[in-house]
Amino acid sequence: MIGFNVAPFTGKEFDYIRQAIEAEHICGDGMFTKKCNEWIEEQTGTAKALLTTSCTHATEMAALLLNIQPGDEVIMPSYTFVSTANAFVLRGAVPVFVDIRPDTMNLDEGLIEAAITERTRAIVPVHYAGVACEMDRIMELAGKHHLAVVEDAAQGVCSFYKGKALGTIGDYGCFSFHETKNFSMGEGGALLIRDKEHIEAAEILREKGTNRSKFFRGQVDKYTWVSQGSSYLPSDMNAAYLWAQLEMAAQITADRMKSWNAYYEQLKPLKEQGKLELPMVPKDCVHNAHMFYVKGKDLAERTALIAYLREAGIQTVFHYVPLHTGEAGQKLGRFCGEDRYTTRESERILRLPMYYGLEEEKVQYVAEKIKEFYER
Prior knowledge:
By secondary structure, this protein is α/β, with parallel strands linked by helices. 39% of the residues lie in helices and 13% in strands. The strands form 3 sheets. Strands 1-9-8-5-4-2-3-12 form an 8-stranded mixed beta sheet, sandwiched between helices. Strands 7-6-10 form a 3-stranded antiparallel beta sheet, with no helix packed on it. The chain starts with 12 loop residues before the first helix and ends with a helix.
């Protein structure tokens, strides 16, 4: 069986976890957490990066830092993971869903302005498959209407838009280091803070509402409870696992890109014959080969293709069920405008096996079986 995902592993993870244990500091903000934070800051240019227990928690932190209140509205795509909406729903806000672009599967920037009301507080672009949304237009709209921007860059680590790292363009950016991502700590994420004036509030929020970070830096002689907060710190053992991969980020990305390019070249003839659609990466974007997907004609064709590949020992998966179609989405949010593409495209898309260390012959085998399916 060729599995859909294999969690990244470099071989150094056990050594680094052992070092964390021997340092007798396995809770949050140990030496490996600091290494990971510094790496993100250096690679992205963000003012501050704070490792968190998940991308979900990073997004919840952003909602808290923006002081999202009950009745506020937040614009986002419906084609995303539930955490994108939940982070704001937990604050009492209403997710306002707009349609996606069928070419990139990203939020359609041309539909955002029509969804803005006097209650709108933020725009949440989701960079699907590590391919950037049209951020210039989104930031222009945010400035015009005095809105915050929270980038859901869960899939966008090491991706760029016009030379800017994803997660650093909006007010806040959120990374994921889940098992299925390019770099993993099992469960984990990071909050990226663009503006220095928001760093202290974020540190306090992440440290259970205390000024503990200032205490460790020697800026205060004791730490106290100073504001609302919770515990968003991951274990330093998790950070140690992640550090082994961030050290090799360039190698991991290059390996994934090799597989991505191989899929594209192998399946390009089906695209040219009009039998399949392949991913599209706009010229201003540098992606990270987070996923490779194909789009069939419709739901029935995708279902048949999944079954055919399963019989050949290949695990493939479809992705999000649009949030506005779910029970919670209908109750807690609303869709603005027409759902022209969100549902239709979600029923056509199929994700192929993609992970660090995926052998070339397996990529070729998957591609051959897809060709075989369409030749029948």
